[in-house]
Amino acid sequence: MINLRYHIVSIAAVFLALAIGLALGSTFVDSVLVSNLESRVDQLQADTESAIERQALAEGALGEAEAERDAALASVEAAASVRFEVEDLVRPYLPQGRLSGTTTLIIAPESTNRDAVAAIRTRLEATDTRQGGVLWLSDDLRLDDSAVRESIAEAFSLAGDSRNAIQRALRFLVPQALFRPTEAGSSRTLGSDVDAITDSAALDGFSRGFSSVPQTRTALTLLRDLELVTHDGTGAVALHRIGGEHLRLVVVTDEGAAGLNQDFVFDLLVAIADDGHVGTGVIVEVRAPGSAGAGDGAVLERVRSDPVLAQGYSTVDEVTSFSGDLALLVALERLPAVSHFSGADLNHGLGPS
Prior knowledge:
By secondary structure, the protein is α/β, with parallel strands linked by helices. The protein has two domains: 1-93; 100-345, no CATH class. Helices cover 50% and strands 10% of the residues. The protein contains nine helices and seven strands. Helix 9 links the parallel strand 6 (314-317) and strand 7. Helix 4 packs across helix 6.
């Protein structure tokens, strides 16, 4: 006989085992799933908090940048306001209308910072001085090369080509071409039709017949033809027409041209002063190409320590600053009175003369 109670118990045991298995299985799966979900939620929460922190930092940086921008704009506006006030203050003292009748020639070694020279030239073009352009000096004017000396001796009909003979000739002929153009070897007659003086004895034995060269040739044009000087005269007076008692020189140089300064530039300036033309120029020191800061000061220190140069020429350093730029114009306007503008004293005496 089939024991019904046994079958019922067996069936119940099977269903009980299934229930226990399902319960245990679902609990394990749910635990793993929940754990994974909780990990992802925690990570998302961390990412959200990190993003919120980054957003806060970005907003803070943006606020600082906006504040810096506003401060910079305010500073620019304030500086512009001060500049306009300063320009209004000094405008009556600028040499507007007071350089009329003068010719200004810029002289600079070829190695001098071209941008600095161009800035000075632009400033001068804003005045009413007659533009003489820029006379660039070759380093060969140091006369180290015998071939250069020979070419100069031949061009100027000199009896010898020693360094001393060449220097003596240039000390005489270049100032003559610049400031006494009606005399030997220069072309322009100022205010009259008087012929150039042809007294060859005035050349002190340096040259014979140089005074009778064509009127388009001067000591300066001869040096140009020898490629020892270059005249950047675009829109300015032609080189052979530069010169006379109303000539003003702006000598722009730097410590990088120390050799040429010593061997030619300073020697020429002394010769001009010795020739009776004191108070005819301003010497400007600019930053040497590749150097840091403003002018090193060595050039003007040399000039200001020399009794002839210091009494014969005005000087200005830091000419790239607003006050230095202004000082250059004031120094030009005051010539033949000599003024020295330097560093902390750059603003000294910028009032009416």
